[in-house]
Every structure is written in structure tokens, then in C-alpha cells.
């Protein structure tokens, strides 16, 4: 089982408009990803993995910020391209993945092993399906690998168009790599970016 997160509204196409403000982990276009939301996801993941709920976890926090930025990019780009996924398709995919995993408990275990809080599973599946539909629209008729590459390149360009601003303590957005790079301040604690599992993988066609 793989999870993925990867597109936009016309109102967001003002290059460089994203500006991180106090209390925000990142800003994608005009959408703010709040620090409080990331903290809640870290707590949920800590609880699911048996760690103290309030235990700090810098690598996981960075990974979750990256996840959420990618969620926004996929959803925004898909909206700009007129691509959407019916709720029924998400329900069906969720059921299939749950069955393949061997049940709900096993699904939760697999998700947490990949750094995905239980509460994000359905959203992650929806974004994965959206990414697949967006890739098909961007590069119709091509093979899955070619569509994946086209999607990644398109999202990189899209992130530059709408603007992605990350709180300095996490680093800075690398559009070419579609991930957050380490902080430039050498005094800051270096935390290597953790890319979400399956980021370059699309649902089976």
C-alpha cells in the first residue's frame, strides 16, 4: 500500500504572494497552514505510535509540514485544472486499501509507519486519487511513469507561480525537489527533509 500527496484556484496565481506569518508553518498561495494544525497532527501521530502525546519530534514535524504543503499544491492545482474526485471514489479506494491491509487496525498501523496520522488517511487517499486524475489530464495517453514525471514538473512550476513560503525554522521551499530544504542558518539544528512515502507514485491505473 502506498500513500501519496501531490494541485489550485485561479485567485492564487499571483507569483510570490505567499508570506509566512506568526503562527503559520507555511503559506501556499493564499492558504495558511497553521502551526496549531501541525502540532495536532504530531500529537495524533505520537499517540498512535505509543509515544508521549506532547513529545517533540522535529523530523516528524518537518515531514508533516511537507505533507501539508503538498496536499495544498495538489488540491489547488487540481482546482485550477478543473479536476476533481467524487466522494464515492474516495470511499471505494479507502475500502479497498483497508481490505488489502487486512482491516482497519492494520491500515492504521501502515499509515502511522509511513508518518501519516490516522486522521489524515482519508485526505491522503483523496489527494492521491486527485494527483492521478491531474497527471492524466496533464499528460494524457502516456504511461504511468511519464505521467508521474510530468506531474512532478508541473507541480514544481505551479508552486513557483502561487508561491510557497515556509516558516524559517523549517527551512525553505525547493520547487524543483518538491520538498522543504534545511534551514540556511548554520546555528539552527539541521533537520533533513523527510519526503512522504509514495510522493512520486500514483494510484494503479
Question: What attributes does this structure have?
Answer:
205 residues; mainly alpha; Triger factor/SurA peptide-binding fold; three-stranded antiparallel sheet; two-stranded antiparallel sheet; 6 helices; 5 strands; 49% helix; 9% strand; disordered N terminus
Class by SSE composition = mainly alpha
In one word, what is the shape? globular
State the distance separating the first and last CA atoms: 14 Å
Average residue-wise pLDDT: 82
Report the major sheet.
3 strands, antiparallel
Number of strands: 5
Strand portion: 5-15%
- CATH fold topology: Triger factor/SurA peptide-binding fold
Report the CATH C-level class. Answer: Mainly Alpha
- CATH architecture annotation: Orthogonal Bundle
Low-confidence stretches: 1-19, 186-205
Element layout with pairings:
Elements (H helix, E strand, L loop, with lengths): L23 E5 L2 E4 H14 L9 H24 L5 H15 L2 H10 L7 H18 L5 H19 L1 E3 L5 E3 L4 E3 L24
Antiparallel strand pairs: 1-2, 1-3, 4-5
Helix pairs in contact: 1-2, 2-5, 3-4, 3-5, 5-6
Amino acid at each position: 500500500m502506498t500513500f501519496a500527496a501531490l494541485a489550485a484556484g485561479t485567485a492564487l496565481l499571483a507569483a510570490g504572494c505567499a508570506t509566512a506569518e506568526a503562527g503559520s508553518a507555511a503559506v501556499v498561495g493564499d492558504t495558511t497552514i497553521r502551526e496549531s494544525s501541525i502540532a495536532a497532527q504530531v500529537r495524533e501521530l505520537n499517540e498512535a505510535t505509543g509515544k508521549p502525546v506532547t513529545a517533540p519530534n522535529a523530523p516528524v514535524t518537518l515531514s508533516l509540514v511537507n505533507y501539508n504543503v503538498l496536499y495544498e499544491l495538489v488540491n489547488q492545482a487540481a482546482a485550477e485544472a478543473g479536476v476533481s474526485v467524487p466522494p464515492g471514489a474516495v470511499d471505494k479506494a479507502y475500502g479497498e486499501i483497508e481490505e488489502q491491509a487486512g482491516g482497519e487496525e492494520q491500515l492504521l498501523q501502515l499509515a502511522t509507519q509511513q508518518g501519516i496520522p490516522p486522521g489524515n488517511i482519508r485526505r491522503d487517499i483523496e489527494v492521491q486519487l486527485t494527483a492521478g486524475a491531474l497527471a492524466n489530464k496533464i499528460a494524457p495517453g502516456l504511461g504511468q511513469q511519464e505521467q508521474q514525471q510530468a506531474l512532478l514538473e508541473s507541480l514544481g512550476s505551479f508552486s513557483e507561480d502561487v508561491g510557497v513560503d515556509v516558516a524559517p525554522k523549517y527551512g525553505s521551499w525547493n520547487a524543483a525537489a518538491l520538498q522543504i530544504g534545511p534551514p540556511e542558518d548554520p546555528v539552527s539544528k539541521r533537520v533533513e527533509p523527510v519526503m512522504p512515502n509514495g510522493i512520486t507514485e500514483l494510484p494503479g491505473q
